[in-house]
Amino acid sequence: MAGMRIVVFSCVGLLFAADLVAGDQGPFTLDAKIISPEPQERDGFATSISVNNGFMFIGSPWHTDEDGKRIGCVFVFSRGADGKWLPMDKLSASDGEDNDRFGFSISVEQDVALIGAPWDDDNGENTGSAYIFRRSAEGSWHQEAKLTPASYKSNTTFGSSVSFSGGTAVIGAVSKSGAASKSDDQKGFVYIFAKGDDGSWSEAVECSPSSDGSHWSNEENSDFGRSVAIDGNLAIAGNPGECIRSTRTRIGGGENAGAVYVYAKEEGGEWSEQAKLTAYDAAENHDFGRALRLQGSRCIVTAARYPRIPTRVKTREEEKNKLSDCVYIFRRVADGSWEFESKLVSPASIDTLGGRKDGFAFDGLAIEDDILMIGASGSAGSVYVYEKSPSNRWSQIQKIEMGWDDSRGFGRQIVISDGVLFVTYEDRGSQARTVAIYSR
Predict the structure, then answer these.
(1) Global confidence as pTM
(2) What confidence score (pLDDT) does residue 126 get?
(3) Domain residues for 94?
(4) Which of 279, 369, 386, 413 sees the fewest Cβ atoms within 10 Å?
């Protein structure tokens, strides 16, 4: 696509997680634990979570209704004046059917919630849908619209990822077909929707990766839209399954190396592809773009499936780096281009050659102001807390964990809102999916 920049980076800015250092506001401490108000076996409670403006939305996409259909639901909690979170509402789709998985993905901003139901079959098998809910003046939440793409593609699970900002909805439709091919129903897509002056929602653009010669073919795009994010006039979409070629400036590459695409809203309101971000040390099964976040001019991207055996090793330190799960941080500069800022490497895998040890950066990722949270949800799980200095250096300030006897998968989903941290996990004792709430 014309005007697109291909971004390649040197290894300046590599950071390994250091020992705990003191944060300016002290450590995060546990305040409360939230479980489902209507617990059911294998209901998927806390599969997704979004928090904003004093409201917490928790998805339960396999929740069964009174008719025995697993249509899914979303529980809404509100924060009282005393700081306690209490259940206030339960949302479901007006036309929900069995196995729609309503609540699989959620994004909330102010008085609007965007909720995905990626297995909705209304327009074909697993074509998916997404719903807009809005809070009324009385404080209740009601369904405002159901969003579907203009052209339906079977098995693309529209609504598998969602992000909402400033009246614009970004929705991922990941291929469910497995092996990629040239067929549209085996590729992933990203859709951007906007609300018109008449109050109706309409599709602004359908996005798919453009071919730039850096990957083997345009067939490896079934994972495009696995993760999406929007902030203002910028949107990003991950394609962790993309195959990347090795070049003079990019060492490595291979299948599932991954890429992230950046889209910008022009003055006329049109969206166009602005840039493509890749890792400077892209490698086979890198999975770059599996999870991502966008905050202003900063983009955070996870890469959580490094190869277990390096193809080229110069030093032990290089081998440690190559095998570590990690997070890449990019910054948009004044001319609109993107620069590599930092790379945070899994603390647990530095001394354990052979790949991921604790699931660092596999799913959970959150940022607010100068605080970055990275989940390590393998086994018991943990959350690493980083803080950015004025010189743009990120340092680990805390590691939060429940412990082997208490948790499983701690850190799979992470949200931080108004300085409060929310972490999902499974309680080993009760086996209940739980949300732990921390403050500092």
Answers:
(1) 0.88
(2) 86
(3) 5-439
(4) 369
